[in-house]
Amino acid sequence: MATIRDVSKLAQVSVATVSRVLNGGYVNHETKKRVTNAMQQLNYKPSMIAQSLNSKKSKTIALVIPNITNPYFSNLAKAVDDVAKENGYKVLLFNTDDKDENIDYYLNIARQKYIDGLIMATPLKDYKSQSDVPIVVLDRVKDKSVDSVVSNNRNGGKIATQHLIDIGCRKIAHIKGTQDITTAQERYQGYLEVLSEYNLINESLVVEGNFDLDSAKDATGKLLLEQPDIDGIFAGNDLMAVGALKAIKKMGKRIPEDVALIGFDGIDFSRYTEPELSTIAQPIYDMGALSTRVLLDKINGLSKDITFHELDVSLIKRGSTKRQSKGE
After folding, report:
1. Among 166, 138, 161, residue whose Cα is nearest residue 282
2. Residue 93 belongs to what H/E stretch?
3. Hey, what long-range contacts does 84-89 have (CB within 8 A, 24 or more apart)?
4. Which end of the chain is less congested by CB atoms within 10 angstroms, N or C?
5. Would the CATH topology of 4-55 be identical to that of 60-151+284-313?
6. Which among 273, 280, 282 is positioned nearest to 320, based on CA atoms?
């Protein structure tokens, strides 16, 4: 197996020069070319551990997500991994199941792996405690004291609710996510803002799910038993919308004729229900990719300012809200 000394001998340079090439230090073009050619000829594979010790960088970042079973977070993870790979970085993926003890456990592991930076898709109580590495918060942002990438959740809630009103709904329920999560709060706020314009706010039409299918199915079933004249439902994410759809059908109601339904996220899964789900689509891949680029800029000293990126959402109209207008 070739060593760094073998490379230096073949390239006719010092070991220190080979080391500079490996660690991205300045070496003139001709010398760098001789070194890389020698490495190729000898099939030399540098030690990642040695490179980490020399450069004080492991070329590894960690992505912390709350629920790997939710396709939304899986799609975010794919984007992070794609951009990291393009830039020569590896990604450690940690799934917390939305438990604080799991967050602490994984952060301790991340420190032991000498990661270069963190992307947090689940909120921390104290970001200052992680100040030894750059952090970018993705999706669930508690404050703007750290670099953040989010979508416009409040506006998405407004668009969803307005769409239901535009197709004739007047008794519109909302299945909201857990309210200690900022995305759930913001979508709920958008819902309330639109209903207040039409004097349609009714607190009894709001129930809490847990951003999952089963909780939404149970909540929707109870809600429709108590108030069977509900004609529209805005679910705080697509998984809860699927749960609501199952509950609506179980009660023998038609979608969208009796109850129109819209979700939030725009995951691929929403296209495979019957009827297909209308949804507020987040630019999921763009969010994951942008958060990774922001983090890598921080790691490599290309950006020092705190940045806040809020990406636009869009309405996708499908069968679950496709009502015929009068006269058709």
Report:
1. 138
2. strand 90-95
3. 84/292, 84/296, 87/296, 88/59, 89/59, 89/60, 89/61, 89/116, 89/296
4. C
5. no
6. 273
Share of the chain above pLDDT 90, in %: 63
Are 300 and 87 spatial neighbours (Cβ–Cβ below 8 Å)? no
Is 234 in contact with 160 (CB distance < 8 Å)? yes
Domain 60-151+284-313 in CATH 3.90.1030.10: no
How confident is the model over 116-138, as pLDDT tens digits?
Answer: 899 999 877 665 555 678 899 99
What is the maximal distance between C-alpha atoms in the chain? 86
CA distance 77 to 70: 11
| Residue 249: band (very low, low, confident or very high) from pLDDT cuts 50, 70, 90 | very high
- Quick one: tokens of 33? 């070319």
The pLDDT tens digits for 88-127 are 899 999 998 878 788 888 777 776 767 889 999 987 766 5
Summarize pLDDT for 52-90 with one digit per residue, the tens: 545 456 789 999 999 989 999 999 999 999 999 999 899
- Non-local CB neighbours of 275 within 8 Å, separated by 6+ positions: 255, 256, 318, 319, 320, 322
CATH class of segment(s) 153-282+315-321: alpha beta
SS3 299: helix
